[in-house]
From TrEMBL:
SUPFAM superfamilies: UDP-Glycosyltransferase/glycogen phosphorylase. It comes from Pelomonas aquatica. This is Glycosyltransferase involved in cell wall biosynthesis. InterPro entries: Glyco_trans_4-like_N, Glycosyltransferase_grp1. Residues 35-206 form the Glycosyltransferase subfamily 4-like N-terminal domain.
Length: 413
């Protein structure tokens, strides 16, 4: 006769409870192989949910034939492609078109437990309408500061209507995920409801200082001891890139052999090349190639004030690259100035340039900051981020279950 102390009983009692598999519909208007922070983050979340035993249906616009096949690569991710159009000012990205009727039919035949909407465009709006028509719980992401772009694209008069649309969109959802506590506070002050902070992770195996290449640096005209400053991202007005040029001039005054590398592309490239004729322009990079470019930098300059998070900040930190940024988005959340990076007050361009001078002039401090940045990045595990994401979904499902029963419906088996 077995006792409570028998080995078999202990092994059974110690087994974790089986994870409950959910049927999840994820709607996004951007996804790899498109290259941007939202696409990359959503691919990581979809992969993480799949690994956590969930059945994921991914709804996104069909991408141009010139792009590579989608990167999900997971056998249980059911991809549903919809019509798409080029995004104004961003021709390499696609915008979904309204598809409410299609989604109502799709979800009536295969009812998800919850619908998650990553983008607030026409496809996202029709997904919200379809989900509410079917009494499905809905969660969303607030990922892009559309309202902050107004001054850069002469959309000032549309700023309030855009914010009104975003507030209406997200307040119709059961929960909205935001990447930082600061953004949660800002949106709450503007009338957004049911906000949950779910940050972003970084792949520290890909973004690794071991990828540093002397040959790549030589191609930039930089020797082993020369300082290389860099920026990664879209070359566009909303990125505030004039500050990068000012910081570079200050760096050259201290180290005449310093080099500046722009990694990315966009409409400002000709202007930047004219203003900084000795700068290196690599064009858009991705994957391991992008990681090698980060690893070749010594100082990362990121002056954008329009980010909700800014994945490039954590990618640079993971690459053991010292960061100079404004106290905003990911930098404001993760960096302690002088410890694992340098911060300037939002919009204080003179302070940004001064922080760059400090980083350039003290090699020992720069090395210590870069090492601390790498240590910070190593704590940003995508598994933890996915678990927090999952908790928000489960909360929305739990709150919706009484409504299901009142309507005579049952959650998906």
């Amino acid at each position: 006769m077995k006792t409570a102390h028998d080995a078999d009983d202990i092994l059974v009692d110690d087994l974790p409870a089986p994870r409950h598999s959910r049927r999840l519909a994820v709607v996004t208007e951007t996804y790899p192989p498109e290259v941007n922070g939202v696409a990359m983050s959503m691919a990581r979340v979809v992969d993480g949910l799949n690994r956590r035993n969930h059945d994921v249906q991914l709804i996104r616009p069909r991408q141009p034939a010139k792009l590579a096949p989608p990167l999900s690569g997971q056998p249980t991710v059911d991809e549903v492609l919809t019509k798409g159009l080029p995004v104004p000012l961003y021709p390499n990205l696609r915008m979904g078109v309204p598809a409410k009727r299609t989604l109502v039919k799709l979800w009536s035949l295969k009812r998800p437990d919850v619908v998650h909407i990553a983008t607030e465009g026409p496809l996202g709006w029709s997904a919200l309408q379809a989900a509410q028509h079917l009494a499905l719980p809905v969660t969303s992401d607030y990922r892009t500061n559309f309202h902050a772009y107004g001054k850069h694209y002469r959309l000032g008069l549309l700023s309030k209507p855009i914010m009104g649309y975003l507030r209406k969109f997200h307040n119709r959802c059961d929960a909205t995920m935001v990447p930082t506590q600061a953004l949660r506070v800002l949106l709450a002050e503007r009338g957004f409801e049911r906000l949950s902070v779910v940050g972003r992770g970084v792949d520290t195996q890909r973004f690794d200082p071991a990828r540093r290449s002397a040959a790549m640096r030589e191609s930039w005209g930089a020797g082993p001891h020369d300082l290389v400053l860099g920026y990664v991202g879209r070359l566009a007005p909303e990125k505030n890139l004039g500050v990068v040029l000012a910081a570079y001039e200050a760096a050259k005054a201290l180290q005449p052999r310093a080099r500046l590398v722009f990694i990315g592309d966009g409409p400002m490239r000709p202007e930047l090349a004219a203003r900084a004729p000795d700068a290196i322009f690599t064009g858009q990079r991705s994957g391991d190639d992008l990681a090698a470019h980060y690893a070749g930098l010594d100082l990362f300059l990121f002056p954008s004030l329009t980010e909700t998070f800014g994945n490039v900040t954590t990618e640079a930190m993971a690459s053991r690259c010292a960061v100079v940024a404004f106290e905003s988005a990911a930098a404001g959340e993760l960096i302690r100035s002088g410890v694992n990076g340098w911060l300037a007050g939002p919009g204080r361009e003179a302070d940004f340039v001064a922080a760059t001078r400090m980083a350039v002039s003290d090699a020992a401090a720069r090395a210590a900051v870069a090492e601390a940045a790498r240590a910070t990045a190593r704590r940003l595990d995508w598994g933890d981020i996915t678990a927090r994401f999952e908790l928000v979904l489960e909360g929305a499902i739990a709150r919706a279950e009484p409504s299901f029963r009142l309507a005579g419906l049952q959650p998906a088996a």
